[in-house]
Amino acid sequence: MIREAKILFDKNFFREVMILACWCIWTHRNGIIFDHQARSIDRWMQCFKVEVHKTLHRCKPALKLELNVWLCNLV
Length: 75
What we know:
Blueprint: H1 2-9, H2 14-34, H3 41-56, H4 61-72
Helix pairs in contact: 2-3, 3-4
């Protein structure tokens, strides 16, 4: 499934996006369990966008523009 997702995603930064998505799921889960927060896709998406934006500051210049365009097109 991961190989198929990588092929369908068709971007050079697939690994980074997957790691950040998993990290945001993990932190959201911790908020639900330990801080009694409600489940929220919007809060997860906000966390994900913030983490991708942080990644822009340390990514290779060749990928920075492509990743930024992808981030801006997220719904």
